[in-house]
């Protein structure tokens, strides 16, 4: 079964996917400051979308204050709690004018259900495609960026396809499958289970206070934790047909763990290490 959102190609716009709790450790402001910088800094116009949250008033106020304190020129909240709101002229205009959009945490399935196929969904993809926008999301706001999206599962432990619930994401990062709070909540089993079902998707497990900054066909790792990459495409064997509560067969799967300073080539599916500012070499 093919799952996908409204886009299928990576554009030149920048995407910042955060593993959650981005201010939980010393120096944690660096991720949000990077987002503000990429969004234009003092000249930027940032929109905060708390669709995923069950407490939007609290979450909006928190991020409005944080992003303003970090130097964003204009910061406003945009309520998208119904599909009618996500098709409204004022919402579309707000996103046409924005240089940065930040999706908060909460429930990634709710974000996808509210936005998929709407005018808001379309304008976000269009502006990413032209390189006019920086799009960021934390926790659920990162998970929904995947083409194929994990929405639940893995609590019982072990690698098993039936333990993971999958849905179509919004395709801001097509070809990947993002899991968040990765090391902190022990989600390696969950991501392996998802990749067993969808080996064409590159599994990305992002730790808390850690992010990937993706532009074009490459992403870099920033923050205090790491990013785990699971590539089922290089496996010699992946068998899930004989599931019956048993783990899948996964042989030769590639796994990389990358801290800040490393990058990844999404087209070539290979990790890179920085040798100097703006220059990278393939990790042998």
Automatic annotation (TrEMBL):
Q: Which UniProt keywords apply?
A: Hydrolase, Protease, Serine protease
Active site as annotated: 139, 181, 208
Which reaction(s) are listed as its catalytic activity?
[L-4-(L-arginin-2-N-yl)aspartate](n) + H2O = [L-4-(L-arginin-2-N-yl)aspartate](n-1) + L-4-(L-arginin-2-N-yl)aspartate
Q: Which GO terms describe its molecular function?
A: peptidyl-dipeptidase activity; serine-type peptidase activity
- List the CDD domains: GAT1_cyanophycinase
Q: Which GO terms describe its biological process?
A: proteolysis
Question: Is Hydrolase one of the keywords?
Answer: yes
Database matches in Pfam families: Peptidase_S51
Q: What is its EC number?
A: 3.4.15.6
Indicate the enzyme's highest-level EC class.
Answer: hydrolase
Q: Which InterPro entries match?
A: Class_I_gatase-like, Peptidase_S51, Peptidase_S51_cyanophycinase
Q: Looking at the record's lineage, which domain of life comes first? A: Bacteria
Protein family: Belongs to the peptidase S51 family.
Q: Which PANTHER family match?
A: CYANOPHYCINASE (PTHR36175:SF1)
NCBIfam families, per database record: cyanophycinase (TIGR02069)
What's the stated role of this polypeptide?
Answer: Exopeptidase that catalyzes the hydrolytic cleavage of multi-L-arginyl-poly-L-aspartic acid (cyanophycin; a water-insoluble reserve polymer) into aspartate-arginine dipeptides.
Protein name (Swiss-Prot/TrEMBL): Cyanophycinase
Source organism (scientific name): Micromonospora pattaloongensis
Taxonomic lineage from the root: Bacteria, Bacillati, Actinomycetota, Actinomycetes, Micromonosporales
């Amino acid at each position: 079964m093919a799952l996908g959102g409204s886009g299928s190609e990576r554009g030149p716009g920048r995407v910042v996917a955060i593993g959650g709790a981005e201010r939980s450790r010393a120096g944690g402001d660096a991720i949000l400051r990077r987002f503000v910088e990429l969004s234009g800094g003092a000249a930027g116009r940032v929109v905060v979308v708390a669709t995923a949250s069950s407490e939007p008033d609290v979450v909006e106020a928190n991020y409005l204050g944080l992003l303003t304190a970090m130097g964003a020129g204009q910061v406003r909240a945009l309520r998208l709690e119904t599909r009618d709101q996500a098709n409204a002229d004022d919402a579309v205009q707000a996103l046409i004018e924005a240089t940065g959009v930040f999706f908060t945490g909460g429930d990634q399935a709710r974000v996808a259900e509210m936005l998929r196929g709407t005018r808001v969904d379309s304008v976000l993809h269009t502006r990413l495609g032209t390189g006019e926008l920086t799009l960021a999301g934390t926790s659920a706001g990162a998970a929904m960026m995947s083409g194929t999206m994990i929405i639940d599962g893995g609590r019982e432990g072990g690698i098993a396809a039936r333990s993971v619930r999958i849905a179509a994401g919004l395709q801001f990062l097509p070809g990947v499958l993002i899991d968040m709070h990765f090391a902190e909540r022990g989600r390696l089993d969950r991501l392996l289970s998802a990749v067993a079902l969808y080996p064409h998707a590159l599994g990305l497990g992002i730790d808390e206070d850690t992010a990937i900054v993706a532009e074009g066909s490459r992403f870099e790792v920033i923050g205090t934790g790491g990013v785990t990459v699971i590539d089922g495409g290089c496996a010699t064997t992946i068998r899930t047909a004989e599931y019956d509560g048993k783990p899948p067969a996964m042989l030769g799967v590639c796994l990389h763990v990358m801290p800040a300073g490393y990058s990844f080539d999404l087209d070539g599916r290979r990790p890179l290490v920085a040798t100097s500012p703006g220059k990278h070499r393939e990790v042998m």
